[in-house]
Amino acid sequence: MSNILSGIAYILFAPLVGGLLAGIDRKITAHMQRRKGPPLLQSFYDVFKLCSKQGISVNRVQDFYVGGFLLFVIISGIFFFTHGDILLVVFTLTLASVCLIVAAYSSNSPYSQLGAERELLQTMSYEPMLLMMSIGFYLTFGTFNLADIVSGPQIGILYMPGLFFGLCYILIIKFRKSPFDLSMSHEAHQELIKGIATEFSGRTLAMVEVAHWYENIFLLGFVYLYFVWSAPYSPLIGIAACAVVFVLEILIDNCCSRVKWQRVLTSSWLVSLVAGFVNLLVLMSLR
Amino acid sequence: MALLGLLIGIPALASLVLLVMRDDRKRGIFVKIAAAATAATAIATAITFFGSASTSFRIGSEVFTKTILVLEVVLCAVILWLTFSAKRILIGLLSIVQTALIVWFELTAGDKLHVQKDIVIDRFVIIMIVIVGVIGSTITVYALGYMKDFQKKAGSVPDRRPFFFFVMYLFLAAMFGLVLSNNLLNMYFCWEITSLSSFLLIGYTRTPEAQHNSFRALWMNLLGGAAFALAIVILGIYYGTVEITQMISIGKAGASVVLPACLLVFAGLTKAAQMPFSSWLLGAMVAPTPTSALLHSSTMVKAGVFLIIRISPVLGENQAGIMAMFVGGMTFLFASFAAISQSNGKKVLAYSTISNLGLIVCCAGIGTFEAVWTAIMLVMFHAVAKSLMFLTVGTAEHHVGSRNIESFDGLFSEMPQLAICMAVGICGMFLAPFGMLISKWAAMKAFIDSGHALLLLVLVFGSSATFFFWTKWLGKITAIVPGKRNIEGSVHKEEWFAIKGLAVLTIVVCILFPVLSAQLVVPYLHEVFHTEMQVISNDNLMIMSFMVVLLVVLPLLAFGKSHKKLVNTNLSGENMGDDLTFRGAMDVPVPVSLRNWYMTDWFGEKKMTAIGSAVCIAAIIIEFAALFGGELHV
Fold first, then answer.
1. Interchain CB distance below 8 Å, A88 and B558
2. Whole-structure pTM over 0.90, yes or no?
3. B477 and B408 in contact (C-beta within 8 Å)?
4. ipTM value of the model?
């Protein structure tokens, strides 16, 4: 029952918290750059404005794919917050990103397609790490089931520091932060106009935004998983950890410039191999 | 028993009739009837034997054994004649050696063998029979339409369609014989027929390239056949049996059957086109598309994995098992990488087949309940989705004029129905709630539980590569390109029947897979491993099944129903107004052309094949060396 409630809470409040996080992100970024930055609620104003624009599209199918992206992101979040299976979450997330990529391809526009290909590359870069993370939880807790993972006696981070580091590394890609924001970034200086989102406008673009808010919430949820165990006060530690990781990602974003795709692929695979796989080997020998 | 006679007899008889049938129209009718009869018999067989867990038959007829032996010698003579007339005598010698081995064995030791179960039908065999019967015969129907176009387009190729259909049906008959056989001697005979049939089909056009590739396929498969023959002789002489079931019970009772198991795994590896033998399957592309569809989905390569899965209870932590795991795993990884760099549609399909078979072989090599569950599920999903993919690519090739994925640009506008079927195939191959990913999920669990860390690594990287090349393809065909007109009208109705039928079958299999698992795969495994377990929990199976339903229903409700104002795409503000050209320097219109990303420097075919083959050859040699040398642990 509480699972269902948290699922409903996710559907209702994730966009609020996600939008707020996006606002905080812009505030912190601005302060790091000695600017004042937009109001905290600017992300919401942006989305409302997008929704009020005239509906235009480059073809009749794009909206469907973007809708699919939003839907499957929400579904994978629901699996996460109703304490389903962690692999199911990861795989549904893959399905969602396929929808977004196909939406960009369908427009047959050069900028969109370049963005889509870069998005594909990014997915290929982070996917191994996400799977290894799931494997790590399975090895530590003996299950892929999230309910058992959050209530388990082990403190995840103590067993899986390498995997945690790997997760933080690929979260740079997932949060669309520099140096890995090849396919699409929130800044105006993106060299590919707006990359994968070039041909989205109005409500469709708003859907992409909202989907990212949803996505960011349960991605932080992955971070949270490493810091909770059966102790009643552990959720506070988990939330604090999320905050630290969030600020850290913003710091990295502001310190780095965008790199070439080769660096994205090699570095994230290398991190997956060294930090992730070595950690898995240790966990396997502990079993 | 009579039903089983029909099962092999119908396609065998049909093949002979088709050899002499010269009239196009008559052949059309006859093939449809034969295909329906074959599929119906396969389904009837499945229903008849579904009730009991496992049924076995003893043929026990001296005449039958002697006939098979004579036919084997005839087969050897045919291969000799073919190789001698093409001046490839070495390949012929390979055939002489193994046939001599089998004949010598039968004549000296044959009388002492008392085979109890010539034929065993359990749930796994039922799955294979349905795959061969339904998918195989659907492909022959497709071939009717396809071969008409093929002969029209390939003017210089002599019309040998009667021969083509003869070999196709012979192939199906041999496949039925192969999956039914528990007696390795009979299985070996069918094994050799499939090798010969694939050789004949690959060389259909008789161009120098086709000749060359067909002989490569022949020698590689004969090499596997030689290992098979050797395994039979060793089993017969040292263990006194030629039955698979006997071999498994001996192995499970504690005696080591590693040597024959190693040889059989080796035979399976050649047939399943694992590295370093993957080149024969790639070379098979030169043949007309129905051949590839048949080789990749329901016959040939499936014979290889069938054998390895069959003996999987005696694999595991021994040289034979490790050989299968390692070669399969590495083939999965490097073939997936190589697929990224390919733009030729058929080649991408070939590499994806090789990599999927690698995963199946790897799982079978682990030989635990979960792993073998995964292997069998993969066999099912792969057979349906891959045959669909080949048929759609074949039809697209005839109408678009190229099998290059780059020319499938805007396929959605030119051939919408075909593009949808192709998309179903692609989704069936890799997408989240669909079959293949479920199997990967299970594979992951199996690898963790059996403690093979290296295989986990192979799986996570290999599957991300899989994601890359399939989505890239999916993107290409879903692109909406303006100014294309619909050219679907000229597709033959036989082709539509096969393609749409398989598309529906893919979706049905993806929705019903929890039932297939519970009714067919789990009972079979229960009998083999004497345990019962849930590889993926029922809840999750239901959720995924429901998501497939969602994916099918959603497009019906909302696809293409947007009423927004249509605008031009962004070509930096210089769009000429048709989305296809932009204003370049000096005011010259420049056409827009989009190419996908292949990363050849990184995932080039040559490099990947070289590394993969080297690693796999090393694995095979090390395992055999370890076997003969005694105590060398890997």
1. no
2. yes
3. yes
4. 0.93
